[in-house]
Amino acid sequence: MDDMRPLSYGVITALFAIAMITIPIRIWVRGVALQAFSWDDWMMASMLIFLPAQQALLYFFLDKGAGVHFDVVMATRPEVMTDLLKGLLAEEFYYVWMQFSIKLCFLLFFFRLSNHRSFRIALWSVIIFHVASTIAIWLLYALQCQPLEAFYHPELYPDVKCISNDIAYFVPYSLNLFVDVCILVLPLPTIITLQMSTKRKLAVIAVITAGGSAVLCGGLRAIILFEFAESPDFTWALGKMVIISAVEIDMGIIAANMPAIKAFYRCWRQGKLGAGQGKYVENSSSGQPSAGSRSAALELSSSGAPPSKTGAAVHVGPRERLPSTESEEELWDLPRQKPKGSEYERSWRSGEASA
């Protein structure tokens, strides 16, 4: 294959379309049906603006010759090399912003999982590290050549020594991969301690750790990044970078929105996509209204009682126990309003008294 562009256009366009569809689904189910829009939802909503700009940069690379062998580009369009290098510099800064935003979306979502002090400390530590590492990467890119113009006009500054590719590429990669691993591991201790069946626990783990797909994508990126740093066939390797960058960004967005897609489907099946109607979606197994909750600990424990001050769920007796929905759906139902005077409210108050 001498031209990677048809494949690149197909892959990045398909992934972009899927990712863009999942964002309004999340906005609708969280903001309209459940009326529980939170900070992580605002962060994801911003992707409606930022993701198309990222996609435009990828199309720019393909239009300028990414995915075509370097000798062909130099023989037919040598003038595009400066444009490609300018675009690459812009993409370095913008890609870091996209990674920061998507990872922060996952981390903000984790605040619903537990109020335990140790978990919150760990979560805030990862967020602080994520912010600091993002700033450090931007500084690295800003200082990689002095003056920075030498990055895209090397012929004008023959004596300038820029930071080596190994540092410029693999230091940011390592910092981002560390945050990916934290996102994968951070919620596991909380989920493992939940009192629920193994099947439901695995379902929760699958949804909450969906962001771990970034670790797999990161492994693939390392292979391509090494080729990009060492290969003399610059434009051909850049075509591969276009594909893996789209996979990383779009799959991260899709993974972050998967629980909302499931909640949207459940509301749609019951005709409850209207304003506030998602709060009273019936349990698919019992036909009863889903158990609402006032905290993430209550949702995860599927218990009818409020959480204790330490964040652990207070379990009530079997007679007061409420019908539960699938835990990964309940995570998206924060906050739920309980119908006044309903059997649910009476059961909840009974459970609170017994606790």
Automatic annotation (TrEMBL):
Localization: Membrane
One Pfam family, short name: Fung_rhodopsin
Keyword set includes Membrane: yes
Residue ranges constituting the Rhodopsin domain according to the UniProt record: 25-265
Ranges of compositional bias, category Low complexity: 284-297
Signal peptide segment: none
Membrane topology: Multi-pass membrane protein
Chain intervals for the UniProt region annotation (Disordered): 279-355
UniProt KW keywords: Membrane, Transmembrane, Transmembrane helix
Comp. bias intervals (Basic and acidic residues): 333-349
Transit peptide recorded as keyword: no
Predominant location: membrane
Lineage: superkingdom: Eukaryota
Chain ranges passing through the membrane: 6-29, 93-111, 123-143, 167-190, 202-224, 236-256
Record's GO cellular component terms: membrane
PANTHER family: INTEGRAL MEMBRANE PROTEIN-RELATED (PTHR33048:SF47), PTH11-LIKE INTEGRAL MEMBRANE PROTEIN (AFU_ORTHOLOGUE AFUA_5G11245) (PTHR33048)
Sequence similarity: Belongs to the SAT4 family.
Entry protein name: Rhodopsin domain-containing protein
